[in-house]
Structures are given as structure tokens and as C-alpha cells.
Design goal:
12 helices; transmembrane helix; mainly alpha
């Protein structure tokens, strides 16, 4: 009798232990281990890329020479291109940014991911704060070459490019995993176009858009890491069954455009630089190289942040804890 009761007790204890493990597994979903590390690594690399862009483009004679030539080359852009640039850049105003942020927040609330929506808003607002502080108070543009007075003021990073990229990141953050590819296909052309058209309108240089890409990417990664560490954001495996809709085709499409734009921009600049003299034709080639180079930079930045979100869904941490306790 004693031996039998002992065995029964041991069996019951084992079953209870198994049930507890099963319940714990159901309550606390496993967090993909690489997502936070991706954000950290990408954020650090983005900061390094931003610093390198500033040093090479602004603090060197060669950088200033090429980019000022590209600015002068923008004067040769056709009227149709200029009108298109004004139209795209006109979409970014304080009012439109507020509307975009409210739309993101409402969508996140509907999906019961309020903290994710707030994180998207923080990314957008912090992007503008950091950009304006860097441009107005931290970074300077030394007079290394003779230039028109309007070319002497620091314009790095580009506020418009930062706004476009942070809005894109916010959209990707709150969008369900399966729909991100479709959303990227729709929103990315606008975000990429904003950076390129700031060059056409002579509002910014090529380096300004690259630095803005770096600022937006670093802030997005930092906000996500902090949100997860504080428990307000939760990383879980993708909550939608099946493959993401159209992801492979969309990634291939943008990757091909990135390669083509990078090759074209670099080729134009290298050939023009090796030619030596800078005449009107050379200035226009520098302008075209800056234009497609800016597009390549924005494409790469968007794809990299999208990559950090692969096969995961970002949810609300507090909601997860409440569910666990109920």
C-alpha cells in the first residue's frame, strides 16, 4: 500500500509538472531570439553610416566639390521633373504628418496594438527632433571650396527624407506580417521619391538624404529595442498563417531597382570624376548620379528595416501580461 501510494503520488506530480509547463508555454509565447539583436546591429551600423556620410561628403574637398556640382546640375532639370518634385514634396507638411500619425494610431488601436501605434508615433516625432537638432546645432559645413553663398549653409540631414522614411517604418511596424509586402509596394515609391526630389528641387544634397536615411533607421531600431526591453512591445512569431502575400516578388523588384540605381549612380559619378573638368554636362551627370543614388539609399534603408521584422509580429507587451493573468 505504501509503495503504491508513493508511485501514484509521483505520477500525479509528474502530470502536474507537465501541465504547468504546457500552461507556461501557452501563456508566454517564445520570442524569436534574433530580432532584438538585428535591431541593435542595424542601429549601430546606421549610426556609423551617418557619421561616415557626413565626414566624406561635408568635411572633404572632394565631397563638397561633387555635391555642389550636382546642385548646379539640378538647374538643368526639365520643368516636368521640377513640377513633379514640388508635387511630391508638397505632400509633407505639418498637417499631413499629423494626419498620418493619427491614421497609424487608429489602425493600431483597431488591431488592439495601441503601444505599437505609439511606438510608430515616437519614431516619426523623434526623427524630426533629432534631424533638426543635428542640422541646426550640432553639424556644421566648413568652407573648403569656393561656392555660392546659398551653398554654404549646412543642410544635413534632410528633414523631408527623415519624415518620409519614419512614416514608412511606422507603417511597416503596425502592418500585419502577411500584408507588409503589399504595403511596402504602395508606400515605398512615395518615401523613396521624397528623398530624390529634394535634390531635384535643390533643397538638399545627396549626402543629406543618406544621412536622413541613417537617422530614421537608427531611431526606428532604438525605439523598438527600448519598447521591447521596457515590456511595452512584444515580439512573437508571425500571427498570420501561410506565406506573406507577394513578399518574394516585391523584395526581388526593389532589390533589382537598388542594384540598378546603385550601379547607375556610381557609374555616372566615377566616369565624370575621371573626366576631370567640371562643365555643364559634368554637373548634370553629377546631378543624375545623386538622384538615382538617393533612391538607392532609401531603397536599401527600407529593405533593411523590413528585414528586421521578418517572420515576426510586433504586439503590445502590457496586453500580453494582462492576458496571462486572466
Amino acid at each position: 500500500m505504501l509503495d503504491g501510494s508513493t508511485e501514484d503520488s509521483a505520477d500525479n506530480s509528474a502530470e502536474d509538472s507537465t501541465d504547468e509547463i504546457a500552461i507556461a508555454t501557452d501563456v508566454a509565447p517564445t520570442r524569436p531570439p534574433h530580432t532584438v539583436l538585428r535591431w541593435v546591429a542595424v542601429g549601430v551600423l546606421a549610426i556609423a553610416a551617418g557619421i561616415a556620410t557626413y565626414v566624406l561628403a561635408v568635411r572633404t574637398v572632394t565631397g563638397q566639390t561633387i555635391e555642389n556640382a550636382a546642385l548646379r546640375g539640378a538647374d538643368q532639370a526639365g520643368r516636368a521633373m521640377t513640377v513633379q518634385a514640388d508635387s511630391v514634396l508638397g505632400t509633407i507638411t505639418i498637417t499631413s504628418m499629423v494626419i498620418a500619425m493619427l491614421a497609424l494610431l487608429v489602425f493600431a488601436v483597431i488591431r488592439r496594438r495601441s503601444w505599437v501605434g505609439l511606438a510608430a508615433l515616437v519614431i516619426i516625432v523623434a526623427g524630426q527632433v533629432v534631424t533638426q537638432i543635428l542640422k541646426s546645432y550640432v553639424l556644421s559645413r566648413p568652407e573648403l571650396i569656393d561656392a555660392y553663398p546659398q551653398y554654404l549653409q549646412n543642410s544635413l540631414p534632410s528633414g523631408h527624407t527623415t519624415a518620409a522614411m519614419t512614416i514608412l517604418f511606422g507603417v511597416l511596424l503596425v502592418t500585419p506580417f502577411r500584408l507588409r509586402a503589399l504595403v511596402a509596394l504602395v508606400v515605398m515609391p512615395w518615401a523613396i521619391g521624397v528623398g530624390a526630389y529634394t535634390i531635384t528641387a535643390k533643397w538638399h544634397r545627396f549626402s543629406d538624404t543618406l544621412a536622413a536615411d541613417a537617422v530614421a533607421l537608427a531611431i526606428a531600431c532604438l525605439v523598438c529595442v527600448i519598447g521591447v526591453r521596457l515590456g511595452y512591445l512584444r515580439i512573437t512569431p508571425a500571427d498570420s498563417p501561410g506565406r506573406p502575400i507577394g513578399q518574394r516578388a516585391v523584395v526581388v523588384f526593389w532589390s533589382v531597382l537598388f542594384v540598378v540605381a546603385t550601379a547607375a549612380g556610381a557609374g555616372l559619378w566615377v566616369v565624370t570624376w575621371l573626366a576631370g573638368s567640371i562643365d555643364a554636362a559634368a554637373e548634370y551627370r553629377y546631378f543624375l548620379g545623386a538622384l538615382v543614388g538617393s533612391a538607392a539609399g532609401s531603397i536599401a534603408t527600407a529593405l533593411i528595416f523590413w528585414w528586421t521584422l521578418q517572420r515576426v509580429t510586433i504586439g503590445d507587451g502590457p496586453v500580453a501580461r494582462d492576458d496571462a493573468g486572466s
